[in-house]
Amino acid sequence: MQTAFIEQQLHQLFEQHFGFKAQYIKPLSSGGSARKYYRLWNNSQSAIGTINLQKEENLAFFSIQKALARSGIRVPEVYRISNDLLCYLQQDLGDSSLFAFIEKYQGQPDFETIVEPFYRKALSDLAEMQIVAHQNMDYSVCWPDSRYGHDTMLADLNYFYYYFVRQHPQLHFNESLLLREFNAFAGQMSGVPDEFLMYRDFQSRNIQLFDGELYYIDFQGIRKGPLPYDPVSLLFQVKAALPAPLRQRLLEFYVEQLAQKKPKAAENFFDYLPWFIYLRLFQVLGAYGFRGLVQRKAHFLQSIPYALNELGNLANAYPLPKNYPQLKMLIAQMERLRSVYPLSETSSAEGLHVRVTSFSYLNKGIPTDTTGNGGGFVFDCRILPNPGRKPEFAGLTGLDEEVIRYLENQESVTHFLNNVKSIVHQAVNDYISRKFNHLMVNFGCTGGRHRSVYCASQLSAWLQKTFPDVKVTTLHNEQLNE
User: What is the pTM of this model?
Assistant: First the structure.
């Protein structure tokens, strides 16, 4: 559908609802969704226009919105719907999400005191949705499925497998056995009671602060399902990074809310909890792989190190049982990915971080920029003499003394590196003056073992000596793969 036609449709809906035309229209971020959002406004009124070509999802959204509103849950009002059901106009709840609020206070001494009341309110509302609003819901319209059961759980695990695990060749496992364990994992969890409303993506980016209240958005994925998934989505949201004691208090509060509404619903909650934390983290890593590594969306790339860190903490706190050996081995190996996706990125107050990487053009190619800046310099070392063609160097790398001496004696290598240093020197000075935080420099060769490794290590040493206040990280991708 053409953009001009979309905007015309939304303008018509705005005028039909308010009785006058919108003066402005502005596209908004859609995050990981295929839906497109616009803000329309004039001097007195504003609204959010949505375009979604998946009609079944829109029908689910309209039905769920009415059911939640009837139950007293604060959701945006739907003002108008186009005749073809592909566009609709809804209430503008502003730009203040609960996540933005949390992020503002992260690291402050009174963080828990400030954010805990908001989480308690969200969890109280969640319990109300899951137990009470559940009774007003027509699950037959839910899309793409009316229930979160074994098949959907297995789909989430496969999503994680194909879009995250398979994107990292340095992870080794028996594929057939791992997929069998995924099936067993889903089978074990599908026995959890699931006659409740499941929001599916109940996290702080989908909670808006508006007129002093919490409002809930992006609920079109609601279906029947088990209780633990939604509180896990909120409290274990990786970039929110809630302290463990606060999480525990909030989980206990949530269970109390359940018990007040339906005592049996709270039974055995903490027995099921670790499984759902694993499941949600796997699903999230799948989404980060697809939206970040495949579609190269910055927000998802930047979230990968936080998810890996959370997975490591989870594996230590709640180790998987022995009948999941492939999955346990996979998670242990994923610890190594932390060097590829560093958790702590420098802020403007801390200065510039230069990441120097060697890679193979034949294996995965140019590295992904996990900072979300779109990449940096890429220098092709295949124009240089190749030590890998000499038998005496075949089993060595560009970090071994024999290879270093060989390349140091090649005039073309010295000329190449001097040119690279000149370019990078200019870039580093410019980035420092503009208070930029990240610079990526990549060296590639055929196998990623000799020339690229040598050049990356030489440049890193030169950077550390020339710019002692700049943080330099060196990664050799093929060594990680091995």
Answer: 0.81
